[in-house]
């Protein structure tokens, strides 16, 4: 029985490893910039890691309250279901980016320099598989990965939102300045033409 348990456990880990590895490679391939940005929010420094962990934990703990309020209304139920699905997706598949970030630190310790997202993810995935063998630790480890993933993605999206707002503000200000310059030039042209007309009448 014990041998069967270990065999089934090993098979489960292998299937989980390979399937998640495939999804990870696809996700990293289609989101190379986001992968790098999220990685910065995780292993940029100890402070970055703790910020992502804290934000992810707070969102996971506090979000159910407004979602419950939203879900009890007929109109808000679809929105609540959509948000729940999105958060669960980010917490589960977001671990790919966390494993990539952890893997890059492992590669750095092995003195493998340069930005290598696929190798980093491979190293991070191996770390996760090894940790998942330990019964008590694996639950705590996976929970931390999920919280960090959620927090890092939220912080990355916040940066994009702030950048978009800044660009929109600069665009509006630029448009206003262009409009002012155009108005000023029009006024100058009108003034010059009126002066010419006055001078011609005097002659």
Describe the protein:
Helix 2 packs across helix 3. It is built from 8 helices and no strands. The chain has 203 residues and is mainly α.
Fold blueprint:
Elements: H1 2-30, H2 32-43, H3 46-62, H4 64-71, H5 76-93, H6 95-109, H7 117-132, H8 135-202
Helix pairs in contact: 1-7, 2-3, 2-6, 2-8, 3-8, 4-5, 5-8, 6-7, 6-8
Characteristic key phrases:
single chain; 203 residues; mainly alpha; 90% helix; elongated
* SS content category: mainly alpha
Strand elements, count: 0
β-strand amount? under 5%
Q: Kindly state the percentage of residues in helix.
A: over 70%
Gap from first CA to last CA: 116 Å
- Rg is 28 Å
Overall pLDDT score: 83
What composes the largest sheet? none
Total count of helical runs of at least 4 residues: 8
Provide the succession of SSEs: HHHHHHHH
- Silhouette: elongated
Low-confidence region ranges: none
Compact overview of the structure:
With 203 residues, this protein is mostly helical. It is built from 8 helices and no strands.
């Amino acid at each position: 029985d014990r041998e069967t348990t270990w065999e089934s456990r090993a098979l489960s880990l292998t299937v989980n490893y390979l399937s998640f590895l495939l999804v990870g490679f696809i996700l990293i391939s289609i989101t190379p910039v986001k992968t790098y940005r999220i990685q910065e929010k995780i292993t940029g420094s100890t402070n970055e890691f703790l910020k992502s962990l804290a934000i992810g934990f707070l969102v996971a703990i506090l979000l159910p309250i407004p979602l419950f309020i939203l879900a009890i209304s007929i109109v808000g139920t679809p929105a609540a279901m959509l948000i729940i699905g999105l958060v669960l997706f980010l917490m589960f598949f977001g671990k790919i980016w966390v494993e990539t970030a952890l893997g890059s630190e492992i590669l750095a310790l092995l003195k493998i320099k340069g930005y290598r997202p696929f190798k980093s993810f491979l190293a991070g995935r191996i770390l996760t598989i090894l940790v998942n063998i330990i019964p008590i630790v694996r639950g705590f480890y996976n929970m931390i990965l999920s919280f960090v993933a959620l927090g890092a993605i939220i912080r990355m999206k916040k940066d994009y939102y702030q950048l978009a707002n800044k660009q929109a503000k600069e665009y509006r200000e630029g448009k206003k300045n262009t409009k002012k310059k155009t108005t000023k030039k029009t006024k100058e042209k009108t003034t010059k033409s009126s002066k010419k007309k006055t001078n011609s009448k005097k002659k």
